[in-house]
Amino acid sequence: MKANGATLADRLKSRRKELGLSQISLAKGCGVSQPTIANWERGGHVPRQAALASIAFELGVDPVWLLSGLSPADQNPAHRHLSKPIRNIPIFEWPTHIDELEQAQARDYVTMSVAGGEMLAVTAPLDSDFPLGTILIFDKAALRESGRYLVQSGDYAKIIDVEYAANDDNGYIEANRPIGRLVLSLQPH
Question: Rounded to two decimals, what is the model's pTM?
Answer without folding.
Answer: 0.55
